[in-house]
Amino acid sequence: MLSQGGVHFCSQTLIFRISSLVLLFGLLGFAAGCGGGGGLSGTVQPAPTPATTAMQFKVGDDAYDRLVSVEATLDYAVLMSPGNMVNVLPSSRRLEFCRLAGTSQLIGALQVPQGTYTSTWFELSNLHVTYLDQSGQWQEYRFTDKLTYTMPKGVAVGADSQVVSVDFDLANSVKIDPTNQTPPTISPVFIFSSGGFGGSASADAERRAVENMIGPVKSVSGSSFTMSSDRDDFAVTFKTDKNTEFDSNNLPTLLSLSTLPNMLVKVNGTTQMDGSLMADKVEVLADQNGVEMEGLLYRFSDFGPPVGASMIIIAQDGVGAGLFPYEDYIGKAIRVDTTNATYAVDTDGVDMTRLNFVFDRNAYPASLQTGVRVRVQSNTGFVRGDNATNVIAQKVTLLKQSLTGWVQNYQAGTPAQFDLQLPSDGDYVTLVAGLHPIHVWQQSATELSGVSSINNKDYVRVRGLLFWDHASQTFNLVAQKIEE
Q1: Nearest CA among 9, 71, 35, 397 for reference residue 231
Q2: How many angstroms separate the CA atoms of 19 and 227, rounded?
């Protein structure tokens, strides 16, 4: 079940007060157990150490097409019960939420003492919002106040591994004036869920999935490897077995466990019943000198030799050489040289049966259009400078993205098809001038979440791959998931 808590603002004083109360309870308990009086004698037995259970803490985004990028620092995420606090973050995390629409990101994995936690409290700071105004120009706004949020939702931690998920409801949290007469406002709303494994097949698979983990590999031990982010201290260990797929991505060196250290990789995996992580696929993106960036395609050009080709993306995420500090480039325009780049499509989890859509410069102008999400990879790192070419790409990959709207002209079949009417105030509509319909392809493997069937006038969120067809002036969205 999902529930929402109230929003309130506070300062670091709250943390001090909570910590002081926990300390006070601990001292009172110690005094009660060890204080004098009554002529007691004998050895005082220490309190038994409570059993612990593996827990994952994930965050996501309930999509809002008006926004291009929303990044914030998650300083604290604390499970609370009377006399006990557990901070599930090993360190503060800098997160970008728009790219997570329809998915979630693992930001904490730890052993938690068993028991009932009555609420969850966390703090956000340094919010940075990027959006497109009604003229199609991107605008930025930074919030200086820290935001705190308490969810009065209990988490019962028993013997089974747990997953706690929090989605940032951007549509109800961030208000934008597309005319730029007034600054954006924010009043955070979050959607909370928790549960163990072993439920329904679809819910269990979603909880156990670990998608799109990107970062450098720090070490290898036996059949496992540990990777982390360049932006913080969060490290996660994946096991491998004979079913783990290694994709060297055309590197001259075959990718294997022995060659993983210092490689920048993307990992898709599965949480095991004991809370450990198994890598299903490991794909190298670059070596230690390289960089990868994700973002929304904003402009592109292809003049042919000797001028070459280029694109501008509004960055939503990235990792690799030259990017520190992280805040400098998220939500900003990044210039990419694509003259010698190859093109690919990230089809993981998307059923492309009977469909032949392409994303390739060689098919220009048939397959390139602003508004699609892409990843650019470079072996030479990020170059700073407002007017510089920031990335020289060796590869450009079409990524999955989410769009929301109303179902029209539904046609049953294999695949089923319908048109998605987008809201008139969405950034996506602004970006492509609102001229092009979105045609959705619902495959037999498309997951339905919170809805048993698709009907005209339904308001849905569709996540999948968005292909541009120049001949029909239509976007084709191949659905991985459709949900209310």
Answers
A1: 71
A2: 32
